[in-house]
Amino acid sequence: MAGNMSYTIVEYFGGDEGHRCGYCKNEKSNFSHGMWSHTMTVQDYQDLIDRGWRRSGKYVYKPTMDKTCCPQYAIRCHALKFQPSKSHKKILKKMNKFISQGELPKEPHEGEGILKTMFLISTLCFVGEPMESVSEEMGTQGLTKMCHSEISCSTSTNFQKEVEVRPTITEFRNQVTDIVPTRAGADANRPPCRKAKELRKERRLQKEQERHNADAVVSSLSHAPTQTNQPKPLEDFISESLMNNSAHRLEFRRFLCDSPLEAEYSVDGPTMGYGSFHQQYWLDGQIVAVGVIDILPTCVSSVYLFYHPDFASLSLGSYSALREIAFTRQLQIQSSKLSYYYLGFYIHSCPKMRYKGQYRPSDLLCPETFVWVPIEQCTPHLDNARYARFNQDPDAGDACVLTDLGRALVLYKRGLMPYAVYSRKRKGCSDEDEMQQYASLVGQNCVERILLYRS
Question: Which regions form coiled coils (predicted)?
Answer without folding.
Answer: none
